[in-house]
Specification:
This protein is an alpha/beta fold. Helix 2 crosses helix 5 (88-101). Strand 5 (175-178) and strand 6 (187-189) form a beta hairpin. The chain has 13 helices and seven strands. The protein has a single domain (3-309), classed as Rossmann fold, CATH 3.40.50.300. It is 46% helix and 9% strand. The strands form two sheets. Strands 2-3-1-4-7 form a five-stranded parallel beta sheet, with helices on both faces. Strands 5-6 form a two-stranded antiparallel sheet. The two termini are 37 Å apart.
């Protein structure tokens, strides 16, 4: 994180009360999903709303300022964070860092906007894959948090995860942990759910299926504990096949106007996600069909739960 951002955060700390800072986060919205579910695409569409403010990227730089948030504990039992990780100092500093980084769709910083109107109302939107494991943590940092749950067909999602792991082995892209304890290869890709150790010496298909299932189960468990008006669910299939209807619904959920850019988008004419590894094709998942279908019987309960949950 650059010196300018840290200076902004320090200045905001001296200018704003705790209640004022919380006021700017009266309507924070977090996208939660398994990795490779299409969250980058969804985020890139929603940021075109004139009411939505973001840090224009994922929050890895913010989290890196808090060493105690690298994992559940020093043993790296998982990457899952809970309310206990969100002590008062962490909450206050994290909010300030986000305020210092926030920009609107026209790249105007919130810091500059607040110099003109300290009572400005905003919709803060955030998308980082680890959010899937951290809903209870986020609810502590941002007590008014709302969540968009994005889910994707497991066959497509698992295939994309396998592709990501393969890319990670060659280039380091998507690698989130290196040299995990008693892990036979020197890297781990994407987020780290509880019980990851049980996947030692398993195939990429089994690891990817585990990540898909664990993330979706944790998201549903955590959202089920909240009021239903605090979350909204959308499928990747519906997003790409009927984007306008889904974006209208989600902007309404966020209490944000639908951006003009969104109004011009039609099914089949959506931009490629910035994290795309290979161009999307119908039935692309069938490149890994045999391995994935071997995993499907163990995933059926989660598939059924998603169908009922939405």
């Amino acid at each position: 994180m650059d010196v300018r951002t840290r200076k902004f955060a320090k200045r905001l700390s001296s200018q704003l009360s705790v209640d004022e800072i919380l006021g700017y986060f009266a309507n924070p919205v977090f996208i939660v999903s398994a990795p490779r579910s299409g969250s980058t695409l969804l985020f890139s569409l929603l940021v075109n709303s004139p009411d939505i403010w973001t840090i224009r990227a994922e929050s890895h730089g913010v989290y890196s300022q808090f060493p105690h948030l690298s994992g559940e504990n020093d043993q790296l039992d998982s990457g899952r964070l809970g309310a206990a990780h969100a002590d008062e100092a962490t909450c206050e500093r994290m909010r300030l860092l986000y305020l210092a980084l926030l920009k609107d769709r026209d790249d105007r910083s919130l810091y500059d906007a607040l110099q003109q109107d300290r009572k400005r109302k905003i919709v803060f939107l955030e998308k980082t894959p680890r959010n899937a494991l951290n809903i209870n943590f986020l609810m502590t940092v941002f007590p008014d948090a709302h969540f968009i749950y994005l889910y994707r067909d497991p066959r497509e999602n698992i295939s994309s995860l396998i592709e990501g792991w393969e890319r990670g082995a060659k280039t380091g892209q998507f690698v989130t942990f290196r040299n995990l304890p008693d892990w036979p290869i020197g890297y781990w890709c994407f987020l780290l759910p509880p019980n990851w150790q049980a996947k030692k010496n398993k195939s990429l298909a089994e690891i990817a299926a585990f990540q898909w299932q664990a993330c979706n189960e944790i998201i549903m468990d955590d959202l089920a504990a909240l009021d239903t008006n605090q979350w909204s669910a959308v499928s990747y299939h519906d997003l790409i096949n009927n984007p306008q209807a889904q974006l209208n619904k989600l902007c309404q959920f966020c209490h944000a106007k639908t951006g003009e850019y969104l109004d011009t988008r039609a099914a089949g004419n959506l931009p490629l996600s910035a994290s795309t590894v290979t161009p999307p094709l119908k039935d692309k998942w069938k490149r890994h069909e045999h391995e994935i279908m071997n995993q499907m019987p163990n995933l059926q309960q989660t598939v059924d739960r998603i169908a009922a949950f939405k």
